[in-house]
Amino acid sequence: MAKRKNNIDDIDIVDDFELEDIDDFDPFDVLDDSYEDKKSYGNDKPRGGNASNKRNKNKKKNPVLVWVGRVGATLLSTILILVIFLYAVMAMLVYGPSKTAKIQFVLSVQETSAIGFLANWFCSQDEIDQIKANNAIKDTDEITDAGLVNIDTAAQDPETPDIEIVDVKGATYSGKLMIVKDPSRLFVGTVPEFTNGNGMVVADIAKRYDAIGGVNGGEFVDGETTYTAMPIGLVMKDGEILNDNGGTSHVTGITFDNKLVLGNMNAAKAKELNIRDCVSISNHIGPFLIVNGEAQDIVGIAGGTNPRTAIGQTADGKILLLAVDGRQPNSIGATFSDLQDIMAQYGAVNASTMDGGTSTQMYYDGEVINVPYSPTGPRSCPTAFLIK
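^ that's the sequence the OP posted. Answer follows.
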């Protein structure tokens, strides 16, 4: 049999077959055609598959949506990394070799209303309670002796300013100390009404009384529900009782003869001691620092490192108002022991702690002069110690 010679001329070319532009060709489009279409090249059906699919493939993505998606993914990744990092840092503090670091961590977060739960991630409640009990300033049944303060305005140095603002600094903190020469200028300011609602920042309370300065005052309802316009314990103004939960309160007040009085007492005792204005705060939140010239006994490290507010009086009657910043890179905060040292350094014979944390704020001459820790500004309060 003769072998047929292959020649290019012998190949039949289907006349109606057209090669598509190579840029438009997609081998996967062919899969969309029917089996019969694939067998025939002479079919009139356009090659390249379903036209609507091709339009979807050629449709460009919205660049704005792409950008938003990328930014969102970056933010989520960053937040996740930060959370993991912070958790690792906290774990290192708690489980690391330093017992002091663990105690500081537990006390510092437990003194906040927002992140106190972090201590429970690493410690049982019994352990937390034990740490608190072993690191505090002891309370006292002693009441201040007003006779230790001798107010003689005539003997005061006339060159001393009526109000002096001093910068205070320590290893872990910075803040402001207001020294007021005339103690009669001190009084308690309040919100218009004590209610189950929001209070006012110190600046607004001060403006309500046309006061030149002041700091935040006593404790308020803060737990599962927070009412910053509702104080806890005894509150007096001009000798009148504005709030009294009954029983004994941890009181800081000023008498009608302008002497600072500290002590655990009920309303009747406060009246007996001639107290003009006062606020109250629990000992674990606002312990007495110095009573009758004696620094109160400290157990352990005396509290966490946080923003703090305090009030004191010197032997010659000057009022000391203190606001220490905290929870910031340049000022982590102060312990109760730090406050005690500052008050002693400036001559306080009696001194007490007020509410702290996001409440800590000092107002003077139309502005807040410390740096309160809060992304939304200073926290509202029901009471403040103000200066006329």
